[in-house]
Amino acid sequence: MTPVDLLPWATAVMAAGVALSLGLQGRQLRRALDTARGELRDAARIRSALDATSVPVRIADVDGTVVYVNQALAQVLQRDEAAFRREQPAFSADNVVGRSIGYFYADPEGAVSRLKSLRTRACTELVLGGRRYEVITTPILDAEGHNQGTVGQWLDVEHTRRAEAGVQGAVAAAVDGDLTVRVETRSLSGFHQVIGEQLNRLLASFGDTVAAFDTATSALALNSAQVSQTSQSLAHSASQQAASVEETTASLQEMNASVKGNADN
Fold first, then answer.
1. Residue 123 is part of a domain; what is its CATH number?
2. Cβ-based neighbours of 119, under 8 Å, separated by 6 or more
3. Are 128 and 62 in the same domain?
4. Per the domain annotation, does 137 fall within a domain?
5. Could you tell me the pTM of the whole model?
């Protein structure tokens, strides 16, 4: 059999090999595509969950660039945009994604450096847009422990801190004897407003009780003084009457002696 005779066989074998290779590659490609689709679905579910949560959340990459903000944080940024601009005149709530997270810190480079080296969850309190936030930052680590970015949660604690300051001020004043100080509740809401109002009612009730006690004590002191004065007057009158009785007795004794003397004569 000549090489020319073998050519069809060789071609068939090569075609079968190519088909087998393409089939294997196709199956691998389909598996890769299925995996990628699954990862995309997982990412979409995670994004939907983050958008649905009421806690403001942002995600930044390892270089500190913001790659995502959820709807709650977007609403906060829109609400406080004017306040942010007082601190950062160029601030725009619509342009946060794509900018450095250091934009929100007094020391941008230092903040990004700290986030890059973060290995465990960190909690700090920042004043952002004129409000106080408890910022919980969690590093995103790969399987080898390398930092791939960070997730930050902004918990608005402005009402909590105002309530704490108001309660502490009212209690400290009460300890010092001033029961007129009240918690300012107009700027509070929810649980903190309820606590402030209840404390105010408690202080008012206790203040009324103390005032009533002071009034009763004053009246008792006045009555006691009047009784004491009356007792002194009665004692003085009794003393005068006793002296008068003694004088009368002495006069009678003198008269009796005089009568007796006259009788003897």
1. 3.30.450.20
2. 139, 141, 145, 147
3. yes
4. yes
5. 0.57
Element (H, E) at 184: none
Task: Specify if 150 maps to a domain.
Answer: yes
**What SS3 state is found at 185?**
coil
Q: Which amino acid is at 83?
A: A
In a domain, 104, yes or no: yes
Cβ contacts of 76 within 8 Å, gap of 6 or more: 56, 129, 154, 156
Enter the tokens of residue 146: 């390398």
State the residue range of the domain holding 88. Answer: 55-156
Which residue type does 26 have?
G
Whole-number Å distance between alpha carbons of 139 and 62:
9
pLDDT one-digit tens code per residue, 220-259: 666 665 656 655 665 555 565 555 545 555 554 555 455 4
Tokens of 229: 């004065």
Count the domains in the chain: 2
Compute φ and ψ for 188, nearest 5 degrees. Answer: -100, 170
- Reported for 76-81, long-range contacts at CB under 8 A and 24+ positions apart, including other chains, are 76/129, 76/154, 76/156, 77/129, 80/128, 80/129, 80/130, 80/131, 81/129
219 and 163 in a common domain: yes
- Rounded to an integer, what distance in angstroms lies between the CA atom of residue 24 and that of residue 27? 5
Q: Mark whether 180 and 252 lie in a shared domain.
A: yes
**Cβ-count burial 200-221 (b if 16+ within 10 Å, e if not):** beebeeeeeeeeeeeeeeeeee
Cα-based distances in Å from 176 to 147, 198, 200, 233: 53, 20, 16, 42
Mean pLDDT of 150-177: 82
Going by the DSSP 8-state scheme, the letter that residue 100 receives in this structure is B
Give the angle subtended at the CA of 155 by the CAs of 151 and 157, to the nearest 5°. Answer: 155
